[in-house]
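Problem 3 from the worked examples.
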Amino acid sequence: MAAQRRLAELAAEVKQLRSDIGVLRLENTTLKDKNTKLHQYLDKAEKKATEANNRATIAEQRLHSATEEANHVTADVSEIQEQLNEQLSKMKKQLVKVQERLTSSEQVTAATQVRALHEEGVYEKLLAENRDVHAYTTLLKDSNQLTAQRGTLS
């Protein structure tokens, strides 16, 4: 009897162990599936991270290139601005010279008109009529007398 009881106990234990083995195999299969899925997820995540790093590298290169180009453009703009300032300065000097020549031409024109009026005797008459106003002012206001002269100055 003891042997039968022991045999029954061992049979029950074997049965329990076989049941445990079945549960463990099922659990092992489930864990293998989870492990496979996690590896796939990890592979996808690594691929995405690599792609993101590649895009970031490309973006950094573009930014660096754009920054260099902007620096060159800024340098070009500064150079052009300096050249324009030089040209403006030269043009201002030329304008001053032209204004001086124009003033000289106006004075010569006025003197020529005064001489012509002297010869005609009109100058003294204008002086007598306009003692408060300078004769040159009166002469320059008379557009009929300057019309011919304006054509030669243009």
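Problem 4, a separate protein:
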Amino acid sequence: MSFNPNIPQATDRPSASQGQLLINFQQLNTIFNDDHVAWNDATVANRGLHRKVTFPIVSVGDPVLAGTVGQIYTKTVAGVAQAFFANSTSVFQITGATTTVAGGMTGFRAASGLIINYTSSLVAFSNAGTAFVFAVPFTAAPAIVAQTEGAGSANIGLSVAAVTNLGFTGFSSNPAANCYFIAIGF
């Protein structure tokens, strides 16, 4: 059984094509149910809501939009489907982030340009200063948040200095205390 777009014809009697119409409605509900909650779902409030959104690969370039219209679409980048958002002024790649792990630090670069570097395990800052190099360098000096953990951590002073796009120096009033940090920027 498959969907028949030629039902009913102008010459068809509804009673004669009722079986074909029922098959069409069943097929529409089955197809709709792939990305949406089916129209006959037991939970009435969920009927028609999205389960997921499936996009075909757009084989042409980015859309040209005017006014206040926005569009989410996919296209192939380096052989992999990637999601994009376009409006009347810009195109932004949504997916396609890269992650780099280096020296106990993880760096994440989003397709939009946002970069996040963070410690993937606890590290020690020293009284004299401990140098850290970002796994993914920033374009400009990022914002950094550092914190300690463990007993008495509320009384430990932490600071960062010499922050550049490549790294920073971390200082601690208690070098035995473990620390972690996150740096966010572009």
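Solution to problem 4. The chain has a mean pLDDT of 83. The domain at 98-185 is CATH 2.60.40.3940 (Immunoglobulin-like).
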